[in-house]
Amino acid sequence: MRWMWIDQVIAFEPRKRLVAVKCVSLAEEHLHQHFAAKGDLPPRPVMPSSLLLEGMAQTAGILVGSVHDFREKVVLAKVASAVFDRDILPGETVRYDATIERMDDMGASAVGVIDRFSFVDNSWAPVGRVELMFSHLDQNRAGTEFPEENFVFGENFRTLLEGAGLKRFTAR
User: Fold this and answer.
1) Sheet architecture: strand order including 8-13
2) Global pTM value
3) Which residue in 30, 32, 34, 68 is the catalytic one?
4) Is the pLDDT of residue 18 over 90?
5) Distance from the CA of 101 to the CA of which of 12, 15, 38, 160 falls in 20 to 30 A?
Protein backbone atom coordinates (compact mmCIF):
# COMPACT_ATOMS: atom_id res chain seq x y z
CA MET A 1 0.00 0.00 0.00
CA ARG A 2 1.54 3.29 -1.02
CA TRP A 3 -0.61 5.62 1.04
CA MET A 4 -1.78 5.07 4.55
CA TRP A 5 -4.84 6.97 5.75
CA ILE A 6 -4.58 5.89 9.36
CA ASP A 7 -1.89 6.93 11.83
CA GLN A 8 -2.49 4.73 14.84
CA VAL A 9 -4.59 1.81 16.04
CA ILE A 10 -6.13 2.77 19.39
CA ALA A 11 -8.44 -0.18 20.15
CA PHE A 12 -8.63 -3.79 19.02
CA GLU A 13 -11.10 -6.55 19.89
CA PRO A 14 -10.05 -9.67 17.95
CA ARG A 15 -12.61 -10.89 15.40
CA LYS A 16 -14.95 -7.98 16.31
CA ARG A 17 -13.71 -4.40 16.23
CA LEU A 18 -10.76 -2.15 15.40
CA VAL A 19 -10.50 1.60 16.00
CA ALA A 20 -7.86 3.77 14.32
CA VAL A 21 -7.17 7.50 14.12
CA LYS A 22 -5.76 9.90 11.56
CA CYS A 23 -4.53 13.39 12.42
CA VAL A 24 -5.27 15.71 9.50
CA SER A 25 -2.55 18.26 8.88
CA LEU A 26 -2.34 21.21 6.53
CA ALA A 27 1.01 19.71 5.45
CA GLU A 28 -0.90 17.08 3.44
CA GLU A 29 -0.88 18.07 -0.21
CA HIS A 30 -4.35 16.78 -1.06
CA LEU A 31 -5.85 19.45 1.21
CA HIS A 32 -4.51 22.23 -0.99
CA GLN A 33 -6.54 20.98 -3.94
CA HIS A 34 -9.80 20.67 -1.97
CA PHE A 35 -10.65 23.51 -2.22
CA ALA A 36 -8.14 26.07 -3.45
CA ALA A 37 -8.88 29.79 -3.52
CA LYS A 38 -10.88 30.77 -6.58
CA GLY A 39 -11.68 34.32 -7.57
CA ASP A 40 -12.95 36.14 -4.48
CA LEU A 41 -13.45 32.90 -2.54
CA PRO A 42 -10.84 32.05 0.09
CA PRO A 43 -9.32 28.56 0.22
CA ARG A 44 -11.34 25.95 2.14
CA PRO A 45 -9.12 22.90 2.63
CA VAL A 46 -11.09 19.74 3.43
CA MET A 47 -10.15 16.06 3.43
CA PRO A 48 -11.94 14.48 0.45
CA SER A 49 -14.62 11.94 1.33
CA SER A 50 -12.93 9.41 -0.95
CA LEU A 51 -9.89 9.48 1.36
CA LEU A 52 -12.12 9.07 4.42
CA LEU A 53 -13.60 6.03 2.70
CA GLU A 54 -10.10 4.69 2.02
CA GLY A 55 -9.11 5.21 5.67
CA MET A 56 -12.15 3.22 6.78
CA ALA A 57 -11.39 0.51 4.20
CA GLN A 58 -7.83 0.24 5.55
CA THR A 59 -9.08 0.07 9.14
CA ALA A 60 -11.72 -2.57 8.38
CA GLY A 61 -9.31 -4.43 6.08
CA ILE A 62 -6.81 -4.78 8.91
CA LEU A 63 -9.58 -6.11 11.15
CA VAL A 64 -10.74 -8.63 8.53
CA GLY A 65 -7.17 -9.70 7.77
CA SER A 66 -6.37 -10.21 11.45
CA VAL A 67 -9.08 -12.87 11.81
CA HIS A 68 -6.92 -15.38 9.89
CA ASP A 69 -3.58 -13.91 11.08
CA PHE A 70 -3.10 -12.16 7.71
CA ARG A 71 -2.71 -15.44 5.80
CA GLU A 72 -5.43 -14.37 3.33
CA LYS A 73 -5.12 -11.59 0.77
CA VAL A 74 -7.98 -9.28 1.71
CA VAL A 75 -9.35 -6.86 -0.89
CA LEU A 76 -12.19 -4.40 -0.77
CA ALA A 77 -14.91 -5.95 -2.93
CA LYS A 78 -17.76 -3.48 -2.57
CA VAL A 79 -18.79 -0.27 -0.89
CA ALA A 80 -22.39 -1.12 -0.01
CA SER A 81 -23.08 2.38 1.30
CA ALA A 82 -21.22 5.50 2.32
CA VAL A 83 -22.81 8.58 3.85
CA PHE A 84 -20.82 11.63 4.93
CA ASP A 85 -22.54 14.42 6.83
CA ARG A 86 -19.71 16.90 7.41
CA ASP A 87 -16.22 17.86 6.28
CA ILE A 88 -12.91 17.13 7.95
CA LEU A 89 -10.67 20.19 8.27
CA PRO A 90 -6.95 20.55 8.93
CA GLY A 91 -6.19 20.32 12.65
CA GLU A 92 -8.95 17.78 13.28
CA THR A 93 -8.51 14.11 14.14
CA VAL A 94 -10.49 11.40 12.36
CA ARG A 95 -11.57 8.27 14.24
CA TYR A 96 -12.43 5.14 12.23
CA ASP A 97 -14.43 2.55 14.20
CA ALA A 98 -14.83 -0.71 12.22
CA THR A 99 -16.94 -3.69 13.28
CA ILE A 100 -17.27 -7.05 11.52
CA GLU A 101 -20.87 -7.95 10.76
CA ARG A 102 -20.31 -11.18 8.83
CA MET A 103 -17.25 -13.38 8.31
CA ASP A 104 -16.84 -16.59 6.32
CA ASP A 105 -14.23 -18.34 4.17
CA MET A 106 -15.02 -16.20 1.13
CA GLY A 107 -14.87 -12.81 2.83
CA ALA A 108 -16.50 -10.44 5.26
CA SER A 109 -18.75 -7.45 5.65
CA ALA A 110 -18.02 -4.61 8.02
CA VAL A 111 -19.68 -1.45 9.23
CA GLY A 112 -17.66 1.63 9.96
CA VAL A 113 -18.46 4.80 11.84
CA ILE A 114 -16.33 7.88 11.19
CA ASP A 115 -16.07 10.65 13.79
CA ARG A 116 -13.96 13.78 14.01
CA PHE A 117 -12.43 15.52 17.00
CA SER A 118 -12.16 19.28 16.78
CA PHE A 119 -9.81 20.98 19.19
CA VAL A 120 -11.79 24.17 18.62
CA ASP A 121 -15.00 22.56 19.91
CA ASN A 122 -13.06 20.11 22.14
CA SER A 123 -15.50 17.32 21.23
CA TRP A 124 -16.14 14.34 18.96
CA ALA A 125 -18.84 14.65 16.31
CA PRO A 126 -20.16 12.11 13.79
CA VAL A 127 -18.98 12.45 10.20
CA GLY A 128 -20.34 9.39 8.43
CA ARG A 129 -21.16 5.73 8.22
CA VAL A 130 -19.81 3.18 5.76
CA GLU A 131 -20.76 -0.41 4.92
CA LEU A 132 -18.03 -2.43 3.22
CA MET A 133 -17.59 -5.92 1.80
CA PHE A 134 -14.24 -7.69 1.57
CA SER A 135 -13.14 -10.73 -0.39
CA HIS A 136 -10.52 -13.30 0.59
CA LEU A 137 -8.79 -13.32 -2.75
CA ASP A 138 -7.01 -16.64 -2.23
CA GLN A 139 -10.38 -18.36 -1.68
CA ASN A 140 -12.23 -16.63 -4.50
CA ARG A 141 -9.54 -16.73 -7.18
CA ALA A 142 -7.86 -20.08 -6.47
CA GLY A 143 -5.00 -20.84 -8.84
CA THR A 144 -4.32 -17.19 -9.66
CA GLU A 145 -1.06 -15.65 -8.45
CA PHE A 146 -1.16 -12.16 -6.94
CA PRO A 147 2.04 -10.28 -6.07
CA GLU A 148 2.45 -9.51 -2.34
CA GLU A 149 3.36 -5.85 -2.95
CA ASN A 150 -0.17 -5.13 -4.21
CA PHE A 151 -1.78 -5.76 -0.84
CA VAL A 152 -2.47 -3.67 2.23
CA PHE A 153 -0.49 -5.75 4.68
CA GLY A 154 2.94 -4.53 3.64
CA GLU A 155 5.81 -3.37 5.83
CA ASN A 156 4.20 -0.04 6.79
CA PHE A 157 1.08 -1.76 8.07
CA ARG A 158 3.14 -4.31 9.95
CA THR A 159 4.93 -1.43 11.68
CA LEU A 160 1.58 0.19 12.49
CA LEU A 161 0.25 -3.04 13.98
CA GLU A 162 3.38 -3.69 16.01
CA GLY A 163 3.08 -0.16 17.43
CA ALA A 164 -0.45 -1.04 18.54
CA GLY A 165 0.78 -4.14 20.37
CA LEU A 166 -0.55 -6.52 17.72
CA LYS A 167 2.86 -8.08 17.05
CA ARG A 168 1.54 -11.63 16.91
CA PHE A 169 -0.34 -10.74 13.72
CA THR A 170 2.65 -9.36 11.88
CA ALA A 171 4.77 -12.49 11.46
CA ARG A 172 4.64 -14.10 8.03
Assistant:
1) 8-13, 17-23, 93-104, 107-118, 123-136, 74-84
2) 0.86
3) 34
4) yes
5) 160
Residue 33: how many CB atoms within 10 A of its CB?
10
CA–CA dist 127, 166 (Å, integer): 27
Element (H, E) at 133: strand 123-136
pLDDT at residue 1 above 70?
A: no
Mean pLDDT of 88-112: 95
Domains (range + CATH), the chain: 8-169 (3.10.129.10)
What pLDDT, in 10s, does the model give residues 146-168?
Answer: 555 545 566 777 787 788 777 65
CA 118/CA 124 separation, integer angstroms: 7
DSSP 65-87: HHHTTT-S-EEEEEEEEEEE-S-
d(Cα 64, Cα 56) in Å, to the nearest integer?
Answer: 12
Active site residue 34: yes
